[in-house]
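In the previous chapter we treated chains in isolation. Here, by contrast, the input contains two separate entities that must be folded as one system, with a combined length of 528 residues.
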Amino acid sequence: MDDRLAQLLHRLLPDVEHVSIEALEPIPGGFSRETFRFDARVRRGGEEEVLPLILRKDPPAAAALLHTSRQTEHELLEAIRTHTNVPVSASYGCEMDPSVFGEPAMVIQRMHGSGHTSNLFHDGPDVDQADDVMAHLCELMAELHTADISKLNVGGKLSDPRDVGIDTSSWDAYMDSTFDYYIRSYPDLAYDPIAMIILDGSLWLRRQKPRPLPLAVVHGDFNPANFLYADGKVTALIDWENTRIGDPREDLGWMVAMDNMSNTTVMSHPKQKGGFLAYYNELTGFDITPEELGYFMIFGTMNIAVPITSAVKRRVTKEHTQFLHLYLLQPSLPTLVAFTQLLGYPGATPDSDPGANA
Amino acid sequence: MNTQPGPDGLIEGVIIGLEQEVLPFVSSEKAYATVAMMQSILQGVRQMLPVYDAYLVEEHNSMTSTLRDAAAALDGVSGPEADRIRERAATLGHLPDLPAPHDREALIDAHTRLGRALEASILDLDTIQRSPDTAEAGDRSLVAIRAHLAPRVARDTAVISVSAGMIGRG
């Protein structure tokens, strides 16, 4: 792979005279892409420098958790770097020809900072940084959600990046076309009848449409593992493969779900601001209520659950044999419990009102 | 409980995962052999699971008559050892036979069929709930299905979850 990487970097960095690849190794934990860290020792203009880089490669199609384009991700990262203060990797470019690395791939800058975000919670060694890091994280999310869509949505590619018929011409059109996508996709993800809780949630979303907010660029996988930090600051927001136009409450709702699944407490910080939601409302003026957050926890979870659970079903029916997909069934169970609680299932919580959210 | 994947599908998945995602990266011969032993044990468990309950019942019922037969063969023999064998035959040897367990495949099929029926009903109810004339009855009907699902998924989570959090993330 070293030679192919060197050839790609020669193409992406035409002013470079020589490239050698060093310390190439896989990065564990990237669930949706295969990622490798490496250093590129390059010489240009007679000067030698070392570029810390990451190769992000699509998995085989049947095992893919998210079907999105690396070219779109490349253009998005460069647009974010150009038009916002949100820290993201520089993207050097893509190799979309699958014959080179097996699947399409992209090369991005390896950012400074710790990715061991679990150290910020409970009795972790960086718990003293948690409030500052989460305050900064909240400020970055508020900036992203209030950024000018026209500058980030290069070529309109974020409007329907999965090509599933999403209509972003208005908030209502976006919501209605997304409900249709969720409900239409159910047969593809129903690996077991217990998934009917997901179906119930999708239908409930359509019956209970909330008030509109301005559409925004949403990260799409805003979760406790998708940022790096150092010295009380976020040094990078990572994994922009699911970014698209959407309702900004989706990112917050998905964070609630992932806090629950990851045993983290992002949403309870920054404590001096009354928690993540209160600070976000202060920054944006969106005045999002806890009830809306509950609604968008289901809505945002569905957006990830449709492709991921579809990939799980393909594993259960043996279209592919990757182990990760079977494992995901285990930590995702609490999300089904959370669905039953948010939907007011009788007995789901000690004081639930039967039928309150039917 | 999930029927798809069930315990057999999960164990099979671990065996395949070890084969495809672990063994190719194992460089120590000892570790390689240990992984292969783990696969062998797991495959043994897969083969044991379908017959385990049935064989236990069959063997239980056979052991009661065996205790009686063993005692009967000691007719005329005296002494504390023979007395203890006769005592076991008179007590444990007369335990009632246990019923044969359900055929697991038939149980899974029946369970799945009912689950799919509830799933289809949720879809039908959505149409009923969206009609003003029938919305209230539709809501009540959905609550009945939800009342079945909530304790079930909570129990599944309590049984299946191993540790908080998601391995490999952050």
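DSSP finds five helices and no strands in chain B. The mean pLDDT of chain B is 94. Compare these points with the single-chain example from earlier in the chapter.
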